[in-house]
Structures are given as structure tokens and as C-alpha cells.
């Protein structure tokens, strides 16, 4: 029986090596040039070495992979509001050993205290990355369709391994079908890239050399994706050339064949005889760094997307107010200030801020950015890793990789009155929000804010919520934690570039990963986000089942623009309103029930908030869309009225 072609052997070796380096999931978009990778992936899946997901749309496939990786990070455990538990690896995943990614935390020591960093226990600089997830596409425009997910993964540090098939070098630039210049297509958005020549395998020596090359390539790709050397995980791109023939000549083994099972170690591919390459995570050297320069009694902690639990720990230890975005992983606890962005818009304690300590990437709130831009506020940005630090207003006094452990210990001289004043302001703001979102206030028609609150109230600390960009995440920002139900869900949001694209696919990936540890996933998004990624609802009959409830706030268009300056202008005349409706409101009139029926997805239209809560509390299997229709015309007035009422309430307690 003849050997399999060189393309098939090389693809099989690459998939095996990637599995050895921690790849558990592969997302495949079908194609011809990528056939060797498809055969290799399905063989590994049938042998129980990985889980294969097939999607016909490459853009959806990219976001599904992003969601799978982000969902896997939730199982690692490490703090309040993130779904992590005490920093321990998840014991429910028996085949997974926690990689050693410990990194040091640089010191920023209070004035007058000794430098204790040399003796301090090391603390991770950044939240652990999730599992690396591989995505397979064919050549041509298929590759370009990965770009939105790649950009999101780049900006949020999600480890994706992009395996793009290509024509061999002799066919490039010749007018060959489905052939373009793929190397470098993702430019500066990938941590590592390689343009891999087509294998030949003409003799034993060549096969041995190519197998060694594949093993080394997989080690570099996986380590770069996980950020093991520099602490900056993210996407990597392997552009893989294959010559015909592209299919195996040997018959496939039966699924689950015992010879196909067993652990794989790096470098175990046939023909590889070399020491295994082990990538050791880099650590930051201990140096003394300056103390936090501002007045300790007038400090706030800002926790943006991906901040992690250390932001909450710092705020609680120092009795500082915590302004935490929903996807920060820091929400909850006595320091968290509800509706902080509305409180920031007023005088009182907000006007007295002298220092801000920033974790993560705060992107939701203009009031937060205005506060960080104030010349009388000293800003310290805690930015681990090598990515650009978040300082959009360009006002940071210092940027440090981390704070010394003593900052996270309770301080006897903390100004508890400072926190108490913020807590009072937060309670006043929350009381106003309670008034406008309680059932009787929205009995005639639900509002987007009341929908967000209803979703938040039914979620526990073992649940996962994927929230869409635009209004849903901002509505959640105002209500999350307002009802003290004993726990907060892990919140996942694509805030790297804050786009609405790929949200359904991201939520699907998160749900698949979270279900492995018994966690339930829901999504909250707008109608445009659903329509933009409606292809994410499509799942073939052979694909792993997914349980996911998607709450869609349907206001027939883009209501976020009504909350911005465009909404103010639209209110000035009928002509301005008509122009706004055409280019910003963008009504679509889509029938979501019929759309879901076409994809074989359950759909439920609920008329009021109690019905929404009932639907969310009922048992549910598979993918279900729960639609809540809300009026868009009133959004501008609702936003303005809420800000006015909160301002009055905060002034009353300031």
C-alpha cells in the first residue's frame, strides 16, 4: 500500500504536535487546499485527542475559536467575578495539566516603606490565557474573513493558532485560482507568523528533517500564542503551503480505534529524534519602583476589561472606591460603586479625586475618560505584559507592571470616610435605577435597562454571561450587582475593538467551553449584533451540541447613537430626526422569529420583564433566542432623564 502524500503526513504531524502543546479544540471551515489539515483534524478528533468544530463561514469560525479560548480560561479559577477559583487549575478537566505561567509582580512601594519585593511571593502579572485554539481555513478570501476575530484576539490577548492553507510557491503570482499573497495578511496583529513551504518528503532524510521542522514550528507557535516568553498571549499565523495530492491514500481507521488513543508529547512525531523544546515563561526582575504618587485618601481604582481580581483586592485593602466594568473580572464587594459613570458626572466626591489606579482597558465610559484626563488627577496604570498600556487620554503619570504585595494587604490608616461617601452616592444612584427598572415602572413597555437588570438578577456566580458591545454592555454596567443575590456571573465581552461582529459565534464558543465544567452560558445582545452574526446560529448535525440562551433586545436599529451627540442633534427638528433615522437609526424590520426558524433555532418573544425572568428560569436545552422588543424612539429621553435624576440624588447625599 502506498504511503500517504507528503501534504497529509505534514498536516498530521502538525496537528499532533499542536495537541501535545495544549490545543484541545480545532475549528474547521471546509475547503480544498486545506484538505490535509481537515483529514488530520478529524482523525485526531475520532481518536479522542481533540474536539473538532466545523463551521461553513470563516468569520464565524474565527469568533467561535475566540469564544472557545475565552471560555476555557474561565475554568482555571482565580478570583471574584471571573469564574476562577482561588488560582487552582480546574480539577474537572482531568486531561489538562496547568502550565507554569507564574510571573513576578513589580513593586510600587508606599513612601517610607522598605522594598519587600525581593522576598515577596510571586504573583501572576496578568490573568491566565485560555487554551490555544486552532482555526483551519483554505486559501484566498477565506483567510481574510478571519481578520475581525484576529484583531479582537490581538487586542484582548486570546491565544488563537491560525492554520491557513496556501498554494505552493510556484503557483503564487501566476493567476492560479484562489491564490493571493497570504503571508503577512494579519500584519501587526499576530504574535508570531511563519510562511511554511510545501513539504516534499521525497526520501527518509527529507522526511526526518521536515518532521523536526514541524515539531519546532508547533513549539514556537504554541509558546507565542500563550505568551510564555513575554506575557502577551494572542493570535499566531502559520501559512501552510500544500501540493497535490491533498488526500490520504491509506484507509481511515474506525473512529475511536484504540491505537489512535493515548497521550502525545512534543516531538513524538514519526522521524523526530531530538531533545524536546520546553518553553519556560519569562519572569520580570525585581526592581524597586516609585510609590503611588498621589494622596492615598483621595484615590479611586478603575477596573477596565480584563483587569482581574487584583483591582478589587487593592480597592478593598485600601478602602478605595472601585469603578469596575462588567467584563473586568473585578466586580462585587463593598468597594464596588454601582452606576459609577453617572456618579462621576457630578460634583461631590467625584470632584475631589486626586489619584486613579487603572487596571485593564477601560473603554465603556466617557465620564471615566474625562476623569482620567483631568490635570489634577495623578494616574497610575498597572499594565503587565508587553502590549501598549491603556492611556487613551495620554495623562498617565507612571506605568508599572504591577504593585508590591503589601498594597493588597489591609491598611490601618485607610480613609474609610472617603469610601463611605462614594458608597452613599452609589446607593443613591442605584435607588434611582431601581425606580425606573422595577416591574411596575416598565409595565407598559420594557426598556433595555430593565431587560439588562432582569438578565443580571437570574445569574449566579457559576454562570457565564456573554454581553454584546454597544448598548447591552453599557446597560449591564449600570445594573450588574445592584441586586445583591450572593454572587456575580463571569462576564465575557469582546472589548478589544468593541465591535458587534462575531458575538453569536463568540457566545457559542464560550458556551461549549464552559459546559465542560457544568457552567451555564447566556448572552445579552442587541438586534443588530444578532443580524450581523446570524450565521453563528448555523450548526451542522455532526457538531458538538451547545446549550445557549440568547436574549436579544430588539429596538429595530442602532439606539446607541441616540445616547450620543447625534441624538441631541436629531431632537432639534423633523429633518434632523429623519436624517438620524436614515444613517444612524438604520431600522431593518427583520422578523427574528422567522430568521431563527430558518436556522432551526428555538425562538420566544416575551412581552414584559416578568415573562423574561420566567423564560430565563425555565429549563432550556440547545440554542434558544429570547426576543424582547423595546421602543427605540424614547432612548434619548430615557438616557437624559436618568442622568438628571441620578444627579439630583447624588447631590442630596454628597
UniProtKB/TrEMBL annotation:
Q: Which GO terms describe its molecular function?
A: 2-succinyl-5-enolpyruvyl-6-hydroxy-3-cyclohexene-1-carboxylic-acid synthase activity; magnesium ion binding; manganese ion binding; thiamine pyrophosphate binding
Query: Which Pfam families would you find in this protein's record?
Result: TPP_enzyme_N
The signal peptide, as residue positions, is none
Its BP terms in the Gene Ontology are: menaquinone biosynthetic process
Cofactor note as given: Binds 1 thiamine pyrophosphate per subunit.
Specify whether rRNA-binding is a keyword of the entry: no
Can you give the residue ranges of the Thiamine pyrophosphate enzyme N-terminal TPP-binding domain? 128-180
> Which region ranges are annotated with the description Disordered?
79-100
By its UniProt entry, which CDD domains does this protein fall under? TPP_PYR_MenD (cd07037), TPP_SHCHC_synthase (cd02009)
Q: Which reaction does it catalyse?
A: isochorismate + 2-oxoglutarate + H(+) = 5-enolpyruvoyl-6-hydroxy-2-succinyl-cyclohex-3-ene-1-carboxylate + CO2
Q: What is its EC number?
A: 2.2.1.9
Supply the enzyme class, top level. Answer: transferase
* Role noted for this protein: Catalyzes the thiamine diphosphate-dependent decarboxylation of 2-oxoglutarate and the subsequent addition of the resulting succinic semialdehyde-thiamine pyrophosphate anion to isochorismate to yield 2-succinyl-5-enolpyruvyl-6-hydroxy-3-cyclohexene-1-carboxylate (SEPHCHC).
The cross-references to HAMAP family, in alphabetical order and at most eight, read:
MenD
Please give the family membership noted in the entry.
Belongs to the TPP enzyme family. MenD subfamily.
Protein name as it appears in the record: 2-succinyl-5-enolpyruvyl-6-hydroxy-3-cyclohexene-1-carboxylate synthase
Amino acid at each position: 500500500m502506498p504511503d500517504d502524500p507528503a501534504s497529509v503526513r505534514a498536516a498530521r504531524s502538525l496537528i499532533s504536535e499542536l495537541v501535545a502543546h495544549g490545543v484541545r479544540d480545532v475549528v474547521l471551515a471546509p475547503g480544498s487546499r486545506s484538505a490535509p489539515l481537515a483529514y488530520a483534524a478529524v482523525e485526531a478528533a475520532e481518536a479522542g485527542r481533540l474536539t473538532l468544530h466545523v463551521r461553513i463561514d470563516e468569520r464565524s469560525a474565527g469568533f467561535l475559536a475566540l469564544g472557545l479560548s475565552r471560555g476555557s480560561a474561565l475554568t482555571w479559577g482565580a478570583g471574584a467575578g471571573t469564574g476562577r477559583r482561588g488560582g487552582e487549575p480546574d480539577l474537572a478537566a482531568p486531561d489538562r495539566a496547568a502550565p507554569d505561567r507564574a510571573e513576578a509582580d513589580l513593586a510600587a512601594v508606599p513612601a517610607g516603606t522598605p522594598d519587600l519585593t525581593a522576598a515577596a511571593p510571586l504573583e501572576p502579572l496578568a490573568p491566565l490565557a485560555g487554551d490555544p485554539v486552532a482555526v483551519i481555513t483554505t486559501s484566498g478570501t477565506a483567510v481574510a474573513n478571519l481578520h475581525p476575530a484576529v484583531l479582537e484576539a490581538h487586542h484582548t490577548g486570546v491565544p488563537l493558532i491560525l492554520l491557513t492553507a496556501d498554494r505552493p510557491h510556484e503557483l503564487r503570482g501566476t493567476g492560479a485560482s484562489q491564490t493571493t499573497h497570504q503571508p503577512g495578511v494579519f500584519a501587526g496583529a499576530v504574535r508570531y507568523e511563519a510562511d511554511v513551504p510545501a513539504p516534499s518528503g521525497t526520501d527518509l532524510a527529507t522526511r526526518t528533517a521536515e518532521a523536526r521542522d514541524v515539531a519546532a514550528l508547533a513549539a514556537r507557535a504554541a509558546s507565542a500564542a500563550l505568551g510564555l516568553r513575554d506575557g502577551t498571549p494572542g493570535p499566531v499565523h502559520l501559512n501552510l503551503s500544500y501540493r497535490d495530492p491533498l488526500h490520504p491514500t491509506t484507509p481511515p481507521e474506525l473512529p475511536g480505534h484504540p491505537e489512535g488513543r493515548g497521550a502525545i508529547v512534543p516531538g513524538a512525531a514519526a522521524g523526530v529524534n531530538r531533545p524536546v523544546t520546553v518553553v519556560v515563561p519569562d519572569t520580570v526582575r525585581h526592581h524597586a519602583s516609585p510609590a503611588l504618587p498621589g494622596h492615598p485618601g483621595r484615590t479611586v481604582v478603575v477596573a477596565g476589561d480584563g483587569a482581574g481580581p487584583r483591582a478589587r483586592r487593592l480597592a478593598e485593602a485600601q478602602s478605595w472606591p472601585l469603578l469596575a466594568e462588567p467584563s473586568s473580572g473585578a466586580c462585587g464587594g463593598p468597594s464596588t460603586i454601582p452606576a459609577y459613570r453617572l456618579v462621576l458626572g457630578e460634583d461631590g466626591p467625584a470632584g475631589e479625586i486626586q489619584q486613579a489606579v487603572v487596571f485593564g482597558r477601560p473603554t465603556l465610559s466617557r465620564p471615566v475618560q474625562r476623569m482620567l484626563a483631568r490635570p489634577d488627577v495623578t494616574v497610575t496604570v498597572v499594565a503587565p505584559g508587553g502590549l501598549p498600556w491603556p492611556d487613551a487620554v495620554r495623562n498617565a503619570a507612571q506605568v508599572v507592571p504591577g504593585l508590591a504585595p503589601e498594597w493588597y494587604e489591609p491598611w490601618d490608616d485607610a480613609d474609610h470616610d472617603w469610601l463611605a461617601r462614594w458608597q452613599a452616592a452609589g446607593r443613591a444612584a442605584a435607588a434611582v435605577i431601581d425606580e425606573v427598572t422595577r416591574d411596575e415602572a416598565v409595565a407598559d413597555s420594557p426598556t433595555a435597562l430593565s431587560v439588562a437588570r432582569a438578565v443580571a438578577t437570574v445569574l449566579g456566580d457559576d454562570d457565564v454571561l456573554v454581553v454584546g458591545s454597544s448598548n447591552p454592555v453599557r446597560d449591564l454596567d449600570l445594573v450588574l450587582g445592584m441586586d445583591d443575590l450572593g454572587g456575580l456571573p463571569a462576564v465575557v465581552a469582546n472589548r478589544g475593538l468593541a465591535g458587534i461582529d462575531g458575538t453569536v459565534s463568540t457566545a457559542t464558543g464560550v458556551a461549549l467551553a464552559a459546559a465542560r465544567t457544568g457552567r451555564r452560558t447566556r448572552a445579552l445582545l442587541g438586534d443588530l449584533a444578532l443580524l450581523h452574526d446570524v450565521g453563528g446560529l448555523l450548526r451542522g448535525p455532526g457538531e458538538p451540541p451547545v446549550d445557549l440562551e440568547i436574549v436579544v433586545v430588539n429596538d429595530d436599529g442602532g439606539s446607541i447613537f441616540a445616547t450620543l451627540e447625534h441624538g441631541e442633534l436629531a431632537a432639534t427638528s423633523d429633518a434632523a430626526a429623519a436624517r438620524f433615522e436614515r444613517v444612524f437609526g438604520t431600522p431593518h424590520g427583520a422578523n427574528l422569529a422567522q430568521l431563527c426558524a430558518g436556522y432551526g433555532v428555538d425562538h420566544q418573544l416575551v412581552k414584559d420583564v416578568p415573562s423574561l425572568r420566567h423564560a430565563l428560569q425555565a429549563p432550556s436545552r440547545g440554542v434558544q433566542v429570547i426576543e424582547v422588543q423595546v421602543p427605540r424612539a424614547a432612548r434619548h429621553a430615557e438616557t437624559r432623564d436618568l442622568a438628571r435624576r441620578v444627579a439630583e440624588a447624588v447631590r442630596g447625599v454628597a
